[in-house]
Design brief:
This is DUF3096 family protein. The chain has about 50 residues and is mainly α. The protein has a domain at about 25-50. The chain is built from 2 helices and no strands. The chain is flat, with a radius of gyration of 13 Å. The termini are far apart.
Length: about 50
C-alpha cells in the first residue's frame, strides 16, 4: 500500500495531533494554532505559485 503525502492528506493528521495535544495540555492552544496556521499558510503559498 503506497501512501501519498500531500497537503490534503496532512491537514487531517495535523488536526488530530493538535486536538489531542489541546485536550492533554490546554495551555498549548495558542502555540499549536499559530504553528498550524504558519505551516498551512506556507504550504499554500508554495503550492499555488506558478
Amino acid at each position: 500500500m503506497k501512501i501519498n503525502f500531500s497537503l490534503s492528506n496532512m491537514e487531517p493528521i495535523l488536526a488530530l495531533i493538535s486536538g489531542i495535544l489541546i485536550l492533554i495540555m490546554p495551555q498549548l492552544l495558542n502555540l499549536i494554532v499559530a504553528i498550524y496556521l504558519i505551516v498551512i499558510g506556507a504550504l499554500g503559498l508554495t503550492s499555488y505559485r506558478s
